[in-house]
Predict the 3D structure of the following.
Amino acid sequence: MTSKVYVALRVKASPERAFAAFVEEIGVWWRPSPLFQTTPRPGRLSFEFPQGRGGEGGRLIETREGGKVFEIGQIRAWEPPRRLVFSWRQASFPLDLRTEVEVGFEALGDETRVSIEHRGFDQVPQESAARHRFPDQVLLMRLADFWRAQLAAVGETVE
């Protein structure tokens, strides 16, 4: 069984606008977290695409001061403006470990439900710094809070 969190929030934008904001403006709306930081000294997040285009084969990166790049994950599914899936790795994860984030965009009248499912934290070893010594239930509650804050920031960006 996999551990996962699922959060969703309505934003006042079309799925096309919400998807574009999520991907193209992630460096603007992203809120670093001391619990789920990708690197010890947060930088600017961005999606990077082969030949400047979106799609599978792209990656989510964090560029730190001085230009050092950390690859957080690779795009696994690219279905604008409906769905985006990418792998996720924090610097505190074991080198071979990746979790997965799926982002959905569903039209609801003049709004869009943006949902995030982050799965695979059961793979993170109990002794890993990424768990902060939290029991599973507490870790997942904190992870859900983290993603709720990220979705709220997307909502602020599109409104």
About this structure: The mean pLDDT is 91. The CA atoms of residues 130 and 142 lie 12 Å apart. The radius of gyration is 15 Å.
